[in-house]
């Protein structure tokens, strides 16, 4: 085949890709549907010109189209890793973890249910063996939710809903292809009725092996990227190689799932690379993969659609009935998940509520596409699969794909309109008016500065300002005097705007490199939670999200438990350092939000809403300061190192800005500027390195600061630091229950607790202890202790406490003072505790 003709055909396909997107927007159809239709038309045209006698002029082009390397291996080894890898890089994994239950249900449970439903339905109405029927079920269970996601975004659907569907799209292919590999093996071996126990026995090897291979490949890739810190093109090249090496390595080396390996590699890179790469390098890497995935996604749709005419060449009239069975079984299986299982999970508070109209849209938007056709093509190419099985697999998969694209895809937007999802709610309409008012105020300020800078004619400026002012006054009055919105909704709108501005401030600080990429990702997730919390729950939802941003998470508690029980201090040290940096960055961002409230919020929503938002912001700042002060008390030296690091990074940013301004003013040449920027980069790389936190050493320093241990010598302090266990608790956690045995004494390293006993309450803060009275009086605990702020407690068991009490006069005085405060009389402590150290 002439290479020039092949290159011409491929280049022409890129022209088709370029034209398909505006055409889809004009026709208001999903982009994937347009690509599939164009591919089918091109494939039909090529076959027509090869078989007709009308003309031979187009035969070379038709032969090139038919002869394109559209084998299944091209789809599975070239295009699929690109699409999966890019999807993982574009995800906010921390937000995905908030909704892991519905994501796994839609991505894994739904695939299994669809496979079984379609498989058994086909086995009842056809002569195919059960293994082949289940294979077809696995092939058609892969959904392509890109169409419904794009429409949800265009109609301002809840961001959480779009994120759930995106998470499904990532794991859906991985689960379906893993199941496909299992049943493909049964079909090739000629097993008529596979045992599910055999399938389940092989499944963990596919999943665990693929996950390990992907994780290992990503770790090596990140290590290499960090070595090539000054060579961005080298880092991009390593990222391009990563998904393919992970895929092939898992498939060929250990017989695991290559798809799972690619997903694991992408997730690992997404989690670790932002903290190891320069921010701009990470941004450029993601932009590169966005372009590669766009091309790969478009090409896989067109090339797969080219195969449809050939896959349908041997269709029979009876096959249409089987296609109908597949359609009904697949839709029924997805409906069971959406309308039965998800509401049940919501009732058990394991999943957020997804309203019925959105569930209908997700059901009708479960389109199938290139992956389904690629898997069907893999079956038809195998010489170990019986011919009749190959024929039916190709026809049923292709027919079902065409139904979803032509019937569901073309009517999806109409269905969404019928459901009323394309109409804004009253609060969204009010939000749009607020956005217009805020935008016009900013425009007026910028236009005024522009007019002043360029010394424009006063008459022209005055007339245009008057005209613009009328429009601005109307927009502000519309935002203020909306009759169809309640006062609490005005507060909600203000909170949404405040959280949105917080997100913009984070992005600006990231661009300035005042905060690191790793911390920016975490506090961006916090800002997203604030927006979603305000939209769904108003003020209470916003406050819940704010409390969560400073609380100790499950991962932190798990690391604390591993440190206490297993002696593994590495994860806890790393998470403590992350928490330190996160709180410092959060405090920096929050202090910039007051101006926004006093400015735009005040002008749009009035004094009452502005004052309320200022109060909520003050509470957030106080909570962050409290949590940060607790860490400072625990790790004073480390806090100083982090603050020095922040100052150094800020100074470097300012220095870089000065050199850039001098270069733009041509005060220095390109050579001098390049040399100066290289020096900046070297110093910045050093400043980016976070100091190491030594928990054991820091605990000794903490114990030394507590007054109750003031009279212990250095050796005793070190022994005590080793004996004390650290416990991190959130506000509201119950530390001691009534009527429980007394086994430990608690010292408050940071935070505060509230004690309730006999109808009375009192509070204790840093440096104070509780739990000692029940031990000394040898009684069950009669009080209840609960934290009122995120706290760090030092826990000492009863035996060590008694020995320490016997030798420390400062501790004895603290115990007596605590007893007197509660009206308890203790006899001589030394007599009650005759043990010697």
Outline of the structure:
This protein is mainly α. 76% of the residues lie in helices and 5% in strands.
Explained architecture:
Residues 708-822 form the Cyclic nucleotide-binding domain. The chain crosses the membrane at residues 6-24, 31-50, 74-93, 100-122, 128-149, 170-191, 203-224, 244-271, 291-308, 320-341, 361-380, 392-421. It is found in: Cell membrane. InterPro entries: Cation/H_exchanger_CPA1, Cation/H_exchanger_TM, cNMP-bd_dom, cNMP-bd_dom_sf, RmlC-like_jellyroll. This is Sodium:proton antiporter. With 837 residues, this protein is mainly alpha-helical. The protein folds into five domains: 3-66, no CATH class; 72-419, Na+/H+ antiporter like fold (Up-down Bundle), CATH 1.20.1530.20; 486-559 and 576-627; 643-688; 722-832, Jelly Rolls, CATH 2.60.120. It is 76% helix and 5% strand. The protein has 33 helices and eight strands. The strands form two sheets. A four-stranded antiparallel sheet has the order 1-8-3-6. A four-stranded antiparallel sheet has the order 2-7-4-5, with no helix packed on it. α9 (159-189) crosses α10 (196-227), α10 (196-227) packs parallel to α12 (258-276) and α12 (258-276) packs across α22 (517-550). It is globular and about 105 Å long. The N and C termini lie far apart (91 Å).
């Amino acid at each position: 085949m002439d290479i020039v003709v092949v290159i011409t055909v491929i280049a022409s396909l890129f022209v088709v890709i370029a034209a398909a997107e505006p055409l889809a927007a004009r026709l208001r159809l999903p982009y994937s549907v347009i690509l599939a239709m164009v591919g089918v038309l091109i494939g039909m045209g090529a076959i027509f010109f090869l078989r007709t006698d009308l003309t031979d002029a187009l035969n070379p082009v038709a032969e090139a189209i038919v002869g394109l390397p559209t084998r299944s291996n091209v789809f599975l080894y070239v295009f699929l890793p690109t699409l999966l890898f890019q999807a993982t890089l574009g995800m906010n994994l921390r937000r995905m973890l908030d909704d892991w239950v519905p994501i796994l249900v839609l991505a894994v449970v739904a695939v299994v249910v669809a496979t079984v439903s379609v498989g058994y339905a086909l086995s009842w109405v056809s002569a195919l063996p059960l293994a082949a029927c289940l294979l077809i079920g696995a092939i058609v269970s892969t959904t392509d939710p890109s169409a419904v996601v794009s429409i949800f975004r265009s109609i301002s659907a809840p961001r959480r809903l779009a994120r759930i569907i995106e998470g499904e799209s990532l794991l859906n292919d991985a689960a379906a292809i893993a199941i496909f590999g299992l049943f493909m093996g049964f079909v090739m071996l000629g097993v008529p009725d596979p045992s599910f126990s055999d399938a389940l026995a092989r499944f963990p090897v596919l999943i665990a092996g693929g996950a390990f291979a992907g994780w290992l490949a990503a770790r090596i890739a990140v290590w290499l990227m960090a070595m090539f810190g000054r060579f961005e093109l080298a880092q991009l090249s390593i990222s391009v190689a990563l998904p393919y090496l992970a895929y092939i390595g898992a498939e060929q080396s250990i017989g695991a799932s290559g798809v799972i390996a690619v997903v694991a590699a992408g997730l690992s890179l997404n989690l670790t690379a932002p903290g190891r790469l320069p921010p701009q390098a990470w941004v450029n890497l993601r932009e590169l993969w966005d372009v590669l995935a766009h091309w790969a996604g478009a090409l896989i749709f067109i090339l797969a659609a080219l195969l449809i005419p050939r896959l349908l060449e041997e269709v029979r009239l009876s096959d249409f009935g089987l296609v109908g069975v597949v359609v009904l079984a697949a839709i029924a299986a997805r409906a069971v998940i959406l309308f039965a299982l998800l509401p049940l999970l919501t009732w058990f508070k394991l999943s957020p509520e997804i309203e019925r109209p959105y569930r209908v849209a997700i059901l009708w938007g479960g389109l199938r596409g290139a992956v389904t056709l690629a898997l069907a093509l893999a079956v038809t190419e195998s010489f170990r699969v019986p011919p009749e099985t190959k024929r039916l697999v190709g026809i049923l998969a292709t027919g079902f794909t065409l139904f979803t694209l032509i019937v569901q895809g073309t009517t999806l937007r109409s269905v969404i309109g019928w459901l009323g999802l394309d109409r804004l709610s009253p609060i969204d309409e009010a939000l749009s008016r607020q956005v217009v008012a805020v935008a016009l105020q900013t425009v007026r300020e910028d236009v005024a500065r522009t007019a002043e800078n360029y010394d424009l004619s006063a008459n022209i400026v005055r007339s245009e300002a008057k005209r613009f002012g009328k429009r601005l006054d109307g927009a502000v009055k519309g935002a203020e005097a909306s009759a169809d919105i309640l006062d609490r909704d005005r507060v909600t709108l203000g909170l949404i705007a405040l959280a949105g501005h917080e997100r913009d401030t984070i992005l600006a600080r990231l661009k300035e490199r005042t905060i690191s990429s790793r911390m920016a990702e975490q506090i961006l997730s916090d800002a997203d939670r604030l927006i979603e919390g305000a939209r769904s729950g108003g003020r209470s939802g916003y406050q819940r999200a704010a409390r969560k941003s400073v609380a100790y998470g499950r991962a932190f508690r798990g690391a604390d438990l591993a440190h206490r029980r297993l002696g593994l201090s590495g994860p806890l040290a790393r998470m403590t350092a992350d928490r330190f940096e996160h709180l410092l960055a959060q405090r920096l961002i929050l202090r910039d939000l007051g101006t926004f409230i006093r400015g735009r919020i005040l002008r749009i929503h009035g004094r009452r809403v502005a004052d309320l938002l200022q109060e909520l912001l003050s509470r957030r700042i106080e909570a962050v300061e409290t949590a940060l002060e607790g860490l400072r008390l625990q790790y004073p030296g480390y806090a100083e190192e982090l603050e020095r690091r922040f100052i150094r990074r800020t100074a470097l940013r300012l220095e870089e800005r000065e050199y850039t301004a001098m270069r733009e003013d041509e005060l220095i040449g390109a050579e001098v500027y390049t040399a100066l920027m290289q020096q900046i980069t070297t110093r910045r790389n050093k400043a980016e390195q976070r100091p190491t936190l030594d928990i054991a050493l820091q605990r000794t320093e903490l114990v030394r600061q507590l007054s109750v241990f003031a009279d212990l010598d250095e050796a005793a302090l070190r022994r005590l630091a080793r004996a004390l266990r650290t416990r991190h608790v959130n506000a509201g956690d119950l530390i001691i229950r009534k009527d429980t045995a007394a086994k430990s004494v608690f010292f408050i390293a940071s935070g505060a607790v509230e004690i309730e006993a006999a109808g009375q309450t009192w509070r204790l803060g840093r440096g104070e202890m509780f739990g000692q009275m029940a031990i000394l009086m040898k009684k069950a605990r009669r009080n209840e202790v609960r934290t009122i702020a995120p706290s760090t407690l030092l826990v000492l068991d009863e035996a060590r406490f008694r020995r320490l009490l016997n030798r420390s006069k400062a501790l004895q005085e603290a115990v007596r003072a605590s007893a007197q405060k509660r009206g308890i009389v203790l006899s001589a402590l030394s007599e009650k505790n005759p043990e010697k150290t």
